[in-house]
């Protein structure tokens, strides 16, 4: 029976544990609004100095390769004021964000701003109400729980550390992000199975995205597609090929059609 074979639950975040709008409507606007204050407050820290250097190098590359450029002014012998350098850095960041770019320098700085935001209570990690009870229950059933999300492992950890339900990080046995492989690529799921030392068919993967579901299924994993409000709709024709759940409480055997 399936429930006894499942040893591991592998969870997607956006659209599965967390509303899809969390990143676009909360994290990104928070970074845009707070980057100036963050740079101002941490200007003399070595990490901030490093990330400014990274942004400046990126701006030089962009000037040559990317058409438009927003250079970062360099202070020479104090002739250019800190304020001007900072302002040009903020302009560069907002310009990159407006193009939805994912440069390493930008991601690094966004990560720093978000960390500060979470720690100060300015950002609260959003998870659906059914997530913590499901994690507790899976734990009681001795299932191992992993996260696989395109958000960086650091960002995943921040989200689950600072939720309104408290720190949920302790429930997870490990985290994977797209550095491990693309989520639409079957090989990534085989690699995860290998990394956590179990067979693909011992893993149940939960996701909202059909391409991820297909990749995981072709790697031999069990998959439930999670239908949360606001998730991208999957065509009726396609949807009938999947087992679907509307929230994580439906995983469990005492709910109708539950499997675990
Ligand atoms: Mg998702």
Structure write-up:
With 260 residues, the protein is an alpha/beta fold. The chain has 2 domains: 2-18 and 125-251, HAD superfamily/HAD-like (Rossmann fold), CATH 3.40.50; 24-120, Orthogonal Bundle (Transcription Termination Factor Rho, Rna-binding Domain, Chain A, Domain 1). It contains 10 helices and 6 strands; from the N terminus they run H-E-H-H-H-H-H-E-H-E-H-E-H-E-H-E. The chain has helices spanning 2-5, 21-42, 46-65, 82-98, 104-120, 131-140, 153-161, 186-195, 210-218, 236-239, and strands at residues 8-11, 144-148, 174-176, 203-207, 222-226, 243-245. It has a 6-stranded parallel beta sheet with strand order 3-2-1-4-5-6, sandwiched between helices. Helix 2 (21-42) runs antiparallel to helix 4 and helix 2 (21-42) crosses helix 5. It starts with a helix and ends in a 15-residue tail after the last strand. The mean pLDDT is 92. Residues 12, 14-16, 207-209 line the site of magnesium ion. This is Enolase-phosphatase E1. Keywords: Amino-acid biosynthesis, Hydrolase, Methionine biosynthesis. InterPro entries: Enolase-ppase_E1, HAD-like_sf, HAD-SF_hydro_IA, HAD_sf. Pfam families: Hydrolase (PF00702). One of its GO terms (biological process) is L-methionine salvage from methylthioadenosine.
């Amino acid at each position: 029976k399936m429930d006894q074979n499942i040893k591991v639950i592998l969870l997607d975040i956006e659209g599965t544990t967390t509303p899809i709008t969390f990143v676009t409507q909360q994290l990104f606007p928070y970074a845009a609004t707070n980057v100036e204050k963050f740079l101002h407050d941490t200007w003399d820290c070595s990490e901030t100095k490093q990330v400014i250097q990274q942004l400046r190098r990126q701006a030089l590359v962009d000037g040559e390769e990317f058409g438009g450029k927003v250079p970062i002014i360099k202070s020479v012998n104090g002739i250019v004021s800190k304020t001007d350098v900072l302002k040009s850095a903020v302009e560069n960041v907002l310009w990159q964000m407006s193009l939805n770019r994912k440069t390493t320098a930008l991601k690094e700085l966004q990560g720093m701003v978000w960390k500060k935001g979470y720690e100060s209570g300015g950002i609260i990690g959003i998870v659906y109400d059914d997530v913590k009870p499901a994690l507790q229950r899976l734990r009681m059933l001795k299932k191992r729980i992993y996260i696989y999300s395109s958000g960086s492992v650091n960002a995943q950890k921040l989200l689950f550390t600072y939720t309104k339900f408290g720190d949920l990080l302790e429930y997870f046995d490990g985290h994977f992000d797209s550095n491990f492989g693309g989520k639409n690529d079957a090989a990534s799921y085989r690699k995860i199975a290998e990394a956590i030392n179990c067979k693909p068919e011992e893993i149940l993967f939960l996701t909202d995205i059909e391409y991820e579901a297909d990749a995981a299924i072709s790697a031999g994993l069990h998959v439930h597609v999670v239908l949360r409000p606001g998730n991208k709709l999957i065509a009726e024709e396609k949807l009938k090929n999947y087992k679907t759940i509307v929230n994580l409480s439906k995983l469990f055997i005492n709910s109708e059609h539950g499997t675990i």
